[in-house]
Amino acid sequence: MKNLRIVIFLIFLSFLATFSVLGLSCRKAQTAKTVLKVWLVDYKETNFRSEIQLFSQKQKVDVTVEEKNAANLEKDLLNTLATHQGPDVVMINHDFLIKHKEIFAPCVKEVKKDKALYCDVKILENNYVPVTQILAWDDKIYGYPYRVSTPIIIYNSKMLYDARKELQKNNLSYNHIPVYWDDFVKMARILTVKDASGNVTRSGLALGTASNNPAAQDTLYSLMLQNGTKISNAQSAEPLALFNLPIKNENGDLIYPGAKALDFYSSFSYPRSQNYSFNDNFDTAWKELAKGNVAMIIDYPERLDKIRYLNPNLQVAGALLPQITDTENPTVYGKIYALGITRDTKDVVMAWKLAGQIAQKFDSKYVKKQTTSSSKDWRKAKGAAEAWTVQVNFAQTIYKAKFPDEFDQFVKEAIDNVSKGLIYPKESLDQAASNINQLISESK
């Protein structure tokens, strides 16, 4: 009997110890800090250290940071999410977000009784430049915008100065890039140098090709937007690509604005065109600018750092992308960069708060409304930085569904086919649109 009491007592102690350990584990779980993982793409941790440290201290969460390269982002993100080891917050662009929208979580401001209260989509409309609204669908926000980038003119200011007399004869200024295409084309012709055989020895404007021009398709999109081309359909509507289709002008006649835009773009690579100034024999446009073989290119402001690195002594500057003469509605194609929250995050509310803290590094300059004085004429913008911040106010973008890379590639092929004289602009765009729309059909 005594032995039985001892056994019962020992069993009781065992249960007591077990529940004590379990209780301790629960208390530890309750007090454990939230850990959020951030992927910075093409940025250094030091760029955001102060913002992240401030957030971590204020919210009492741990934040780990990994630096990623945009070229490997898709593969790395999908691989880590497959094993539930991915980031909570990741830098992406709007094309990437739309392509992989199933892996991202919409903005949630709080959770009550296990029910998510989503952020109001009017936040984008009321606080950010219009182009950022592509980050919302199904009445939910899927990206926290921090930057919009648009193509600008990047030019060798010394070449303009050296050609000042000829420019002045044509009522052009050597220290100001024309804001309209008509005058800008005149400047490009003056800056272009050809030999006795008509071969371009110095390009006034590196345009017309796609194979050696990284911003080719985005420049063409800008031209299409400016002349009223309907480039693509709305979200979920078919067919996707529309840039080859005609519209009616004010007289009721059918015109093909997309083909007209492509014809103008490609004219800079036609040897028989007055605009001829560039071809496939040149190296990549921005590299040729750095070498001193090109006076002007169209590219993104971020390219300036690479150009200056390649040639630190180059006198290089930036300016607004030209518009249709006397337009009252300037526009330019824009890329939207945002912070996305993956669906694997354990604390979606805290992850969105962290995204907001990181975005503050740039958003007041590059995506918030009223980045410049409303009374200031956009035509007065000077320098690359000001051109960038002014253009985000009238930037537009296009919807490419789940095929952003293929969409761009088919458009680039259309450009190259025309610049090489293989096909006419309208037929080339017909072919590109057909290829894009076939992808949509086959994906179902």
Please give a quick description of this structure.
The protein has 444 residues and is α+β, with helices and mostly antiparallel strands. It is 41% helix and 16% strand.
Write structural notes for this entry:
The chain has 444 residues and is an alpha+beta fold. It has two domains: 34-149 and 336-366, 3-Layer(aba) Sandwich (D-Maltodextrin-Binding Protein, domain 2), CATH 3.40.190; 152-333 and 385-442, Periplasmic binding protein-like II (D-Maltodextrin-Binding Protein, domain 2), CATH 3.40.190.10. 41% of the residues lie in helices and 16% in strands. The protein has 17 helices and 18 strands. The protein has helices spanning 2-31, 49-59, 73-82, 94-99, 122-127, 157-162, 164-169, 181-191, 216-226, 257-266, 285-291, 303-310, 348-359, 363-366, 383-391, 404-419, 425-442, and strands spanning 34-41, 61-68, 89-93, 108-112, 115-118, 136-137, 140-141, 144-149, 152-156, 193-194, 200-202, 247-248, 254-255, 296-299, 316-319, 332-333, 335-341, 395-396. The chain has a five-stranded mixed beta sheet. It has a three-stranded antiparallel beta sheet with strand order 14-9-15. A hairpin with a 2-residue loop joins strand 6 and strand 7 (140-141). Helix 10 (257-266) crosses helix 17 (425-442), helix 11 (285-291) packs parallel to helix 12 (303-310) and helix 16 (404-419) runs antiparallel to helix 17 (425-442). The longest helix has 30 residues, at 2-31. It starts with a helix and ends with a helix. The model is unreliable at 6-30 (pLDDT under 50).
